[in-house]
Amino acid sequence: MTEETRAQNRPTLRESAFPAQEVRRFPKVRVIPEPLSDTITPMRICPVLCAALVGICLAGCSSDTGNDTHAQSHPYTERYVPQAEPAETALVRWRIGSIDPRFELTEEQVREAVERAEAIWEEAAGRDLFQYDEQNGIPISLVFDHRQQRRIEQREASRRLDAMRARMQELENAFQSAADALKERAAEFESSLSAYNRQVRDHNRAVAAWNRSGGAPPNIASELREESRRLRSLQNALESERARLKREEQDVEQKRRRYNELVDEYNAVVEEYNRRFGRNWEEEAGRYEAVIGPTRSEEKITIYVVEDLEYLTLIVAHELGHALGIEHVDDENAIMYAYTQERNDDGSYTIEVTDSDLAALHAALQNR
Description:
Blueprint: E1 4-13, E2 48-52, E3 92-99, H1 107-125, E4 130-132, E5 138-142, H2 146-212, H3 218-277, E6 282-292, E7 297-303, H4 309-323, H5 355-367
Helix pairs in contact: 1-4, 2-3
């Protein structure tokens, strides 16, 4: 007598590289740093795990993902093929199992996510594939453990980085605006100063010429004194403007220092983030298991990681595919790819059956 355990594992992988940013010192021309990276490789689906249960240690056949980011499929020792059923009969019956309250999801919400997942497959197949069976269906359970806790910590760390990036952008904009304004006023000051110096030189040459000739007539002398007073007033205004520019320069420098202090803090957080959630982080988000033999049969789907209801739909759709007998496919956009797809720019997922999924579905249905 032999029995077979079949499990489809779905790990999660998060990696991120956030480049350092630096504002160049004023008054050098500042080069805007490269924008921060927002792509996070999405959570992954772990490789297939299979093991025989007749006196064989499960550990000997379990999958070993390690640092490998590609799923490795272990061949089945024996493939179970269920009895053929009429085409109109659902192939997979399911029910809602246990839901850990820490997920903060109701049974109704989970059931709606499963129904959305089954509808994706049934629409592509053009027939009924699944049926809700409260008594005998495959239980779909949500188990809260270190995987979800780690995901929560990763999302909190990611939100902190997002907030820091937003603050850095504010400081960068404030610095750039102040630096640009200072540069413009400094150019105006230099132009006014050059004009003032030319007038002073012209005035001094005129005074020197009249002094060499024995003195200026009263009307000329009066004009020269008036010009001297005007130039002195202009000099005072320029000195005031110089002092104002100096204060603004100090303000720009203070903004630069604040920005770079935040950059240092940000990069320290990034280093810790990448250490904990970088390329070597891989966790399963869901698993389909089947223990099938001549004396007993048991199947179950366990979800370990839930980001939101759309993500839950994606994970359940993948595990329901395994329940139909579909293996992983190589198409990165497919539901049955070993790793979850990246989110779209708007934060959503594109959950649809690809040609690779459809071909694998047809093959699985033929085998049934």
